[in-house]
Amino acid sequence: WHKQDLEDLIKRDRNHPSVMMWSIGNEIREQFDSTGIVITRELAQIVKSLDTTRPVTSALTENIPEKNFIYQSGALDLLGFNYKHEDYKDFPNRFKGQKIIASESVSALETRGHYDQPSDIIKVWPPKHNAPFDGNKDFTVSAYDQVKSYWGSTHEEP
């Protein structure tokens, strides 16, 4: 069904003025094994057969070229990376000549109407993937934009 679904999506939306690129994936596991090469090439070819005016991208999490099979496919016009903003400075050397966007970057959390004090401290909840929850007992998050997930960034970080 992937071919028919993708073709239908492109045909439906290709004349919409707000479509600026096509994404063929978001954090898919095939970036970690060689099936990602074949799948990425096939999906990109389907998109390009129906719309040559917009770039094809995929939102990736693996930012080491040798470990990312979607990147290795050579089929993407634009590399999208989710989070890991602290590594962006290294991307021009890692991905020479590639156009890159931050496909997801901020993972700040908040609960409207709830304000923790002091308000000038950034908290990371949870501090890492295997750590227990150590936030507010009522599971609220301050609306002062002072809490982020360990994989993301706050609104204030570059």
From TrEMBL:
One of its GO terms (biological process) is carbohydrate metabolic process. The keyword Hydrolase applies. It comes from Flavobacterium circumlabens. The keyword Hydrolase applies. This is Glycoside hydrolase family 2. Keywords: Hydrolase. One of its GO terms (molecular function) is hydrolase activity, hydrolyzing O-glycosyl compounds. Residues 4-61 form the Glycoside hydrolase family 2 catalytic domain. Gene3D superfamilies: Glycosidases.
